[in-house]
Amino acid sequence: MVESKNSSTPYTALTGATFWFTGLSGAGKSTLSEYVKKYMDSALGDDKKVFILDGDIIRTGLNKGLGFSAEDRAENIRRISEVSKLFCMAGCIVFVAFISPYSKDRDFAKKLHRDSGLKFYECHISASLAVCEGRDVKGLYKKARAGIIPNFTGVSDPYEQPKDCEMNINTGEVPIEGCKNMVVNHMVKEGVIRDNSAPRVVESLVEVNAAKAQEAAGLPKLMINDMQTELVQTVGEGWAFPLKGFMNEMELLESLQMKTVADASGKRHMLSVPITQDISTELKSAFAGCKAIALCNAKINGGKPIAVIRNPVFFPNRKEEICSRAFGCFSPNHPMASNIMGQGDWLVSGEMDFLCKIMWNDGMDQYRLTPK
User: Fold this and answer.
1) Which CATH superfamily is domain 11-195 in?
2) Would 277 disulfide with which of 66, 114, 246, 266, CB 3.0-4.6 Å?
3) Is 265 helix (H, G, I), strand (E, B) or coil?
4) From-to residues of CATH 3.40.50.300 in the chain
5) Which fold has domain 210-367?
6) pLDDT on residue 59
7) What is the mean pLDDT of residues 200-227?
8) Cα–Cα distance between 355 and 213 in angstroms, integer?
9) Could you report the per-residue pLDDT of 23-53, keeping only the tens digit for each?
10) Phi, psi values for residue 275, rounded to 5°
């Protein structure tokens, strides 16, 4: 259920996303972007995952020649929206630090991303006009008030504040470290990055599907005992991550030798208990060539299938090796060793469907919770 905490970095990047920092000149958009990027470069162990698209820099290159009229501002945003979308599609986390004063232009950027299934977050960097003017190291506000710079947002041109943005960060009241934490916490909450120190809680694999249940009713059936049914429940409800079914031969060997099982990315997770399904030689022969096998317990789900093993693969049940490695003994006085000695000579694994939540009807079902 819980992912091992063996990462050397605090966070892992999971997906691309665009964080659109909008606000008055001097509000701290670029400063915050650079501060968060510096932190994330270290926290992710990769300085290529986070990219900044800064308004001042973009206007010297990609958008060189555009002025500050409403039409030019719209084209400015259109171009940067397309660029940030491309970075986002490539899996980068993008900080767009643009004044972007008009709601319709920001809405365009948002729609462009979300129509492509990309994450987009509008973030209002909401320092007051007085704070922004106090930070005006370039003297832009002074020039604007003197009429030297026309169409200057906040002075001679309007700024339309976001009405329903994902984050509102007041850099005039919150220290920059706190502002950075707000952005990082939002990233974690939205699944853009994962906190490697947090336990990983796995969703249930059970899928109640009428069509699959109907199909399973016509499949060859393997009747399993209560202990095996408990293992179906353990895996199906997410308690045995990263297992998605009974162990195959390589997973069993890894568990016995290393006390771990690797997930799809190759990362190992602690799992020292063999979770397998045995089968007799006679049933193995009977199921030869079957594309799927239904698992049933006469006492559960009215005797109807509780799970299906698809594309079954059979391999030897090396009982002595399993007992010796897992339990340190090969004695019939050990309850688990005794159970394994009584199993069939073969094990079966494959892709599994979990068809129902297992209910024992013993008055305790309400207390059997999922990991989540």
Assistant:
1) P-loop containing nucleotide triphosphate hydrolases (3.40.50.300)
2) 246
3) coil
4) 11-195
5) Sulfate adenylyltransferase (3.10.400)
6) 67
7) 93
8) 7
9) 988 889 999 999 999 999 999 999 999 999 9
10) -115, 95
CA-to-CA distance for 62 and 64, rounded, in angstroms?
6
DSSP H or E segment with residue 109: helix 103-114
For residue 164 the two structure tokens come to 């329903």
Please list the active-site residues: 100
CATH 3.10.400.10 maps onto the chain at 210-367
315-346 pLDDT, tens digit each = 999 999 999 999 999 888 999 999 999 999 99
Helices 249-258 and 319-327, axial angle in degrees (round to 10): 40
Residue type, 313: V
Tokens of 215: 């199909």
DSSP secondary structure of 39-79? HHHHHHT-TTSEEEEEHHHHTTTTTTT--SSHHHHHHHHHH
In contact, 44 and 193? CB cutoff 8 Å: yes
Residue type present at position 150: P
pTM across the whole model: 0.60
